[in-house]
Amino acid sequence: MIKVLIADDEPLITTGIRTVLESAGDIEVVAVARDGREAVRAAQRHRVDVALLDISMPVMDGLAAAAELTGPRVVLLTAFGDEDNVRGAVRRGVSGFVLKTCTPDELIGAVRAAHAGQAYLSPAVTRQVLDMAAPPGDDERGRDAARRLATLTARENDILALVAQGLSNAEVARRLHMTEASVKTYVSRILAKLNCTNRVQAALLVVQS
User: Fold this and answer.
1) pTM as predicted
2) Strands 73-78 and 96-99
3) Would strands 73-78 and 120-121 be described as parallel, antiparallel, or unpaired?
4) Sign of torsion, CA 35 36 42 43?
5) If residue 54 lies in a helix (H) or strand (E), which one and from where to where?
6) Percent of the chain predicted with pLDDT > 90
7) Residue 150: how many CB atoms within 10 A of its CB?
8) Among 43, 116, 127, 137, which residue's beta carbon has the most beta carbons within 10 A?
9) Spatial CA neighbour of 31 closest among 20, 47, 16, 19
10) 37-66: per-residue pLDDT in tens?
C-alpha cells in the first residue's frame, strides 16, 4: 500500500481527494493536515510515502512545506497553473504538479508515479515546464534530440508532437481519431525507444530538437 498524506485547508476538498485515492485499492490515506506546518509534522510521524500538498494553505504554504519534507515524495495540488507556482515546484524538485481540475485517474496516476520515483506533471502545465527547462541555442543538445527522434515512426512522431503540447492521452486520441488505449500503448513504446522515464522528458526532446 502507498501511504499518503493529504494537506488542504478545505475539508470538502480533502474528503473528495481521500475518496478518490482510496478507491484505487493500492493507496491508503494515513494522515490529513490543514496547513503546511501540520503537514510536515504529520508526514514525519506517519512516515508517509507521498505527501499531496495544496499550494495555498495558511501558516505555511505547500511550496514551503515541500522544502522541509525530506522523506516522502511530494505532489503539489493547486487550482493555479501560473508560472510562479510551476517554477517554485520545479525548483524544489517535487515529484508531481497536478491541477485541481484533473480527473480522478490523473490524480491516482500522479500519486503512483511519485511513489515509483517518477515525475508527473499535469498536461496543463507541461508546456510551461518545457519552456523553462529548454533554453534556446544549445546546438549539441538539439542534434542529440533530433537523432533520438529519428528512430520514431511517423505515427509515433505525430503522437509525441501532441504530447509535447501538453495534451493528455484522451485528448491525443480525439485529435488523431484513435482509442485512448492505443495512444497509451504508443506513448509507452515512444518512451522505451527514446529511453525516457516519463512523457515530460520525451516532450523536452521535441523542444530541444
Assistant:
1) 0.65
2) parallel
3) unpaired
4) positive
5) strand 50-54
6) 41
7) 9
8) 43
9) 47
10) 999 999 999 999 999 999 888 899 888 898
Torsion angle of the four alpha carbons 99, 103, 104, 110, in this order, in degrees rounded to the nearest 10 = -50
Contact 46, 30 (CB under 8 A): yes
Q: Assess contact for 142 and 208: CB atoms under 8 A.
A: yes
Distance CA 209, CA 204 (A): 9
pLDDT computed for residue 8 by the predictor: 94
Instruction: Look at phi and psi of residue 182 and say left if phi exceeds 0, alpha if psi is from -120 to 50, else beta.
Output: alpha
SS3 29: strand
CA distances from 86 to 76, 80, 91, 182 (A): 10, 9, 9, 30
| SS3 at position 76 | strand
In 3D space, the residue among 4, 49, 45 whose CA is nearest the CA of residue 24 turns out to be 4
Strands laid side by side in the 96-99 sheet: 27-33, 2-7, 50-54, 73-78, 96-99, 120-121
Cell of 5: 498524506
Q: What residues have CB less than 8 Å from 77, skipping those under 6 apart?
A: 8, 17, 52, 53, 54, 55, 62, 98, 99, 100, 107
What type of residue is 93? G
Alpha-carbon 188 to chain mean position: 16
Q: Which three cell numbers stand for residue 105?
A: 485517474
Kindly state the cell numbers that stand for 100.
485541481
